[in-house]
Specification:
203 residues, alpha/beta, Rossmann fold, seven-stranded mixed sheet, 9 strands, 27% strand, disordered N terminus
Length: 203
């Protein structure tokens, strides 16, 4: 490959990383610019397509549902949920630049069903009432080690029959999850991304 071709390929790859799109619903095909924030890793389009097919099947449609995107980043998961008719979607992020981008996108789309909160996830959760959400998205940076703590923290916020979306660098251990009171409903893998739908098991 020529130097020029390698350079062009590199520019193309960087451009692809910097933008994702909403796949379905009323905001379909809307591009989302990805802020260059530490640890920000948008969920790939093909993963979101699979996950939202699962969710729409399991809930028999998403209109009227309530969702929390706790490590919102680009907002791709939360805005996808809003696009597909969720009644209320809360996006949380600690990075000021990311929050500004999320709020700008909300205004551009006139997404009145979206709320964007700026803050640390641990401090944002306590005021939220029990059973507030039908779907909770957990997609922290893979190297943060936050997923187990976040899973424990959001359990009380999950509505009966609610689902957790969890993304990780490795497949989550079903036995360990069972011991923690979780059941794996669906799981998949795309490239280096392992994604799961979990539900709380009755005690």
């Amino acid at each position: 490959m020529s130097k020029h071709a390698r350079s062009a390929q590199g520019r193309s790859a960087r451009a692809a990383v910097g933008r994702v799109r909403i796949i379905g619903g009323s905001f379909r095909r809307t591009p989302i610019a990805v802020v260059a924030a530490p640890g920000l890793r948008p969920t790939p389009d093909r993963v979101r397509e699979t996950v939202f097919n699962w969710l729409e099947h399991l809930f028999a449609g998403l209109p009227g549902t309530r969702a929390l995107d706790l490590f919102a980043g680009s907002g791709a998961l939360g805005f996808e949920m809003a696009s597909r008719g969720a009644a209320h979607v809360v996006l949380v992020d600690h990075d000021a630049r990311t929050v500004r981008a999320l709020r700008a996108l909300r205004e551009r789309l006139a997404a009145t069903n979206v709320e964007v909160l700026h803050g640390n996830w641990r401090s944002v959760l306590p005021p939220m009432p029990d059973g507030s959400f039908d779907v909770i998205f957990l997609d922290p940076p893979f190297d943060s080690g936050l997923l187990p703590a976040a899973l424990a923290a959001v359990r009380r916020l999950l509505a009966p029959a609610g689902l957790i979306y969890a993304e990780a660098a490795e497949r989550l251990d079903a036995q360990e999850l069972s011991e923690q009171g979780w059941e794996v409903v669906r799981a998949g893998k795309a490239g280096g991304v392992h994604f799961h739908l979990l539900r709380s098991r009755p005690c």
